[in-house]
Amino acid sequence: MRCLLLSLLVLAAGLARPLGAADGSGIGWLRDDRAAFAQARTQGRFVLLYLEAVWCHWCHVMDQQTYADARVRKLLDAHYLTLRIDQDSRPDLANRYRDYGWPATIVFAPDGSEIVKRRGYIAPENFARLLQAIVDDPTPERGDHRDEDAPPSPTGTLPEALRTELQRRHEDSYDERLGGLDHRLKFIERDSVEWALTLAQQGDAQERARAEQTLDAALALLDPVWGGFYQYSTQGDWRHPHYEKLTTLQGEYLRIYALGCAVLGRPRFCAAAQRVRAYAHTFLRAPGGGYRASQDADVRPGEHSAAYFALDDAGRRAIGVPRVAPQVYARETGAMIEALATLSEVTGDRGALADAKAAAEWALRERRNPDASYRHDARDPGGPYLGDSLRMARALLALYRADGERRWLAESLATTRRIDALFRTRAGFASAVQGDAPIAPLPTIEEQISLARHANLLAHYSGDASLRATAEHALAWLAKEEIALAAFTEAGILQAEQELARAPLHLTVVGARDDALARALHRAAQARPGSYKRVDWWDRREGPLPNPDVRYPVLKRAAAFVCNDRQCSLPIHDPEGVAAYFE
């Protein structure tokens, strides 16, 4: 039966090839990686994987110029199977090859081993030379160090020398003149800014100034007409944006501007977060509550759009609206839920909380698997993927903190436990279930940082000690020197290690949910700046708290308690007293 199925897949792949492609290049793209590699083994051909992004300007240009070139097509027809996949639809491939795109070009031998990897647009003449060179000498280039399956160090702490080097790199990577990282691409590196905000709360004036400078500078990437942030700026400044708008990025920027508003006390940052929310609600929000994946950079594929985005709303709409991808993924929706819940905490915006809850209900209904993991799309050709379950677990914990409803915490806990069962390997957590995928999924630095921080915080909320082990396993992989010293990772690793070394600030409200004073105290607890905090609301009618590690007294009226460093405050009975406690 399996042989028959394989034969049918090979036949289907072979039949698919002459049908051509929607890009107009005349190339018969395959779309199924398993079928492509089965056919490659049968025919002895190389596999060329073209990872595109549907919103990407240079992908459109490569379609129109490189893949339409007669020399390129002749070489491909003679020696290669051409496999084309939208990277947004396959997080396992996107995570593995994100440093090479987009577009990303990877060529494999028939047995699935990598030969070469190339990033970005490749001109026709250069591409033809590359294809011929591989035919002449298919010797593989240097492999990916993440393929090494060595077990991580036995502890989740960083060696002292490595920690010192990461701190030095964080300090030296800052662009003192323009803000942000000292890099030719300008964007908000989320972990760097959040780490700066954390240090600012701990009294570091230099990091406070850096966080504010970066958040101010990045406002140049905020669309002045529709809202929402462009992906990045080129040429080493903030004035040359690439105009695509990715939903995960909108969620990350919305969240970081809300945190910046709270920590720095700058209303303009809350205003920026609200403009992201308005853009996402207008352009990205799908019927039912989920969020679509992206909006294209080009109103006409392959044409630069600077003149278009300089127009006002009426001028833009007279020409047309750049394509919004119709796919609604759990990963992107989770990023927006967490961001909207954070905005609600910081500002008290009940509309943002309502949007977050509606999106969570959609995800639970449409993307949750019976085992509490999450599908990426309605079906997962290569999943499930870590990113979807992790984003949703974080989102559900943020919702619990935002409104105190216990079912959000229970769902986050179930999903995080499932993450450990599905994705744990000897070294870190893979980006997808291993299975029989022809291109093996690998751990990614960003997901290990995110999982370490989330699992540790959830362990404090739930009292589940096994989650601490999850967090330590992720951080142990990050503590390997060749991983930790990769680009742009130092701040997130330092933040994760610091959080694992101490308990979060713990604020608890004791009182009935229908009590006005209890609601006001909860609002005051939410408004306390920072991301590493635990906010519980104990209505005794609901039974014990999920992690009853503090015994609170029975009082005649609602009260708030602040616990930190193994001690708790006296009962606080007025909302202003919560903020005053920290003065």
Describe the structure.
The structure is a single chain. By secondary structure, the chain is α+β, with helices and mostly antiparallel strands. It has 3 domains: 2-143, Glutaredoxin (3-Layer(aba) Sandwich); 160-502, Glycosyltransferase, CATH 1.50.10.10; 506-581. It is built from 23 helices and 12 strands. The protein has helices spanning 2-16, 33-43, 57-65, 70-79, 91-97, 124-136, 160-172, 190-201, 205-217, 247-264, 267-284, 306-309, 313-319, 330-347, 350-366, 386-403, 406-423, 445-462, 466-478, 481-484, 490-500, 516-526, 575-581, and strands spanning 46-52, 80-86, 104-108, 114-119, 232-233, 241-242, 245-246, 294-295, 505-510, 533-538, 559-564, 567-568. The strands form 4 sheets. Strands 2-1-3-4 form a 4-stranded mixed beta sheet. A 4-stranded mixed beta sheet has the order 10-9-11-12, sandwiched between helices. The chain has a two-stranded antiparallel sheet with strand order 5-6. Helix 7 packs across helix 21 (490-500), helix 10 packs antiparallel against helix 11 and helix 18 runs antiparallel to helix 19. The longest helix is centred in the middle third of the chain and has 18 residues, at 247-264. The radius of gyration is 25 Å and the shape is globular. Mean pLDDT is 90; it is low at 1-22.
